[in-house]
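Fig. S4 source data, part A: sequence.
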Amino acid sequence: MSFDTGKSGAVLTAAKAEGRAALIGFMHVGYPDVPTSLDALRAMARSCDLVEIGLPYSDPVMDGPVIQRTGTSALARGLRTKDAFAAAEAVTEAGGRAVVMTYWNLVERYGADRFSRDLANAGGCGLITPDLTPDEADEWMVASDAHGLDRIFLVAPSSSDERIAATVDACRGWVYATAVMGVTGTRDESSDLAPELVRRIRALRPEVPVGIGLGVSNGKQAREIAQFADGVIVGSALVRTMIAAEDAGDPTNLTGLQEVLDDLAAGVRG
């Protein structure tokens, strides 16, 4: 059975056809405020192949301190679930492709079918669900099929071959491979577990696009991961630029963000 790359996976395969990896950038909607975050996401749409829109959650157990700070701040300033759909529209209108990344409780409270409908209507391609496993995703499977959305599940170095195969089979679009154990955050060196995890995935399902995440902070690391992955996922390094701008008293300044984006884009194309 062939793998359905959907809309978001097609982005990774298109980059591969150009002889490079896709750049996938993460940013929370709502930080430092919704309008500024939409501007940041538009900038990312112009530099990244795929944009991950983070929808903050009040108990982000898998997020590192950088992403936790922006998510907590966005919630404190009144962020609502519907703002994720405005973010998807902003990315789409800027010529980009977007997926939402969030914890399942928010989708469940909003209503899985209703969330899927509104995300699809906003131009979103799919959803990354870090805390939802395929075993518990019956409602999401139905809703994503009904509205043509990609479903991106996670695998980790600790996943057994059986778990990897089952997870990938449940995906549509691509599979999110976490390159390191633990919470998110930038690291000085890319994980040596990443190449082996990608090798294991491809040994089981060679046709499936693989995005590697957790830890990339600069173009050099992006270039290293681009040698063996189809997508290079960057989060904290981008979010940190928004924090730096706010701390400097100039929260709408996206210069730092664009500099990091340029470095990362050069890395995956290097």
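Fig. S4 source data, part B ends here. The chain has a mean pLDDT of 93.
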